[in-house]
Amino acid sequence: MSIWWSIHLRRDAASVPLARRLLLGTMETAGVDPDISYDLSVALSEACANAVEHGGDSDSSEAYRVTAYLDGEKCRIEVADSGPGFRPPSRPVPARVASVEDEHGRGLCLIQALADHVHIGGKPGLGGTVVSFDKLLKWREDAPLIAV
Questions:
Q1: Can you tell me the distance from the alpha carbon of 120 to that of 62, in angstroms, rounded to the nearest whole number?
Q2: Are 64 and 81 in contact (CB under 8 A)?
Q3: What is the H or E stretch that residue 148 is in?
Q4: Which helix (H) or strand (E) holds 10?
Q5: Phi/psi class of residue 85: alpha, beta or left (left: φ > 0; alpha: ψ in -120 to 50)?
Q6: Under a CB-based contact definition with an 8 Å cutoff, are residues 3 and 27 in contact?
Q7: Given pLDDT bands bounded at 50, 70 and 90, which one contains residue 74?
Q8: What does R_g of the chain's alpha carbons equal in angstroms?
Q9: Greater confidence, 46 or 55?
Q10: pLDDT digits over 2-54, tens only?
Q11: What 3-state class would DSSP assign to 111?
């Protein structure tokens, strides 16, 4: 069983819960375990919030793209924006533990904690950032679209 969808969203805070609800609805309909669905929806919300905040000029409402793939036993999610791009530091930086009280800077830490694999990179030849992450799926016993 494979399901995938892709949606272009305006860089507006109201787009974040829309993407989250779309993912949760897809996973619920397919029969994915609710705990896995919740983890992925939180990670998606953080990636979308980063795209809204950092994904373009401050006076621009350019779109960003969310794509989700449920393929067999894995879900992969990609969030791509057209901002200035994510530049990794030139030298290693000590791991930063985000505090619960922090209002900024927790997004990537949360995504890494909730997903099995995370990749952050640029779009080849273009500006922007692509955050992709995946997680192994668990299925409800009564899942209508369980992978075979």
A1: 20
A2: yes
A3: none
A4: strand 2-10
A5: left
A6: no
A7: very high
A8: 16
A9: 46
A10: 899 999 999 999 999 999 999 999 999 999 999 999 999 999 999 999 999 88
A11: helix
Give me the chain's average pLDDT, please.
84
pLDDT score at 122? 79
Residues 6 or more apart whose Cβ sits within 8 Å of residue 18 = 9
| pLDDT of 102 | 54
For residue 51, the model assigns a pLDDT of 93
The C-alpha atoms of residue 68 and residue 86 are separated, in whole angstroms, by 21
Q: Residue 127: which of 63, 89, 82, 87 has the closest Cα?
A: 82
Length of the chain: 148
User: Residue 104 contacts by C-beta under 8 Å, 6 or more apart in sequence?
Assistant: none
C-alpha dist (Å) from residue 39 to 35, 42, 61, 148: 6, 5, 28, 23
Query: What is the distance of C-alpha 12 from the center of its chain?
Result: 16
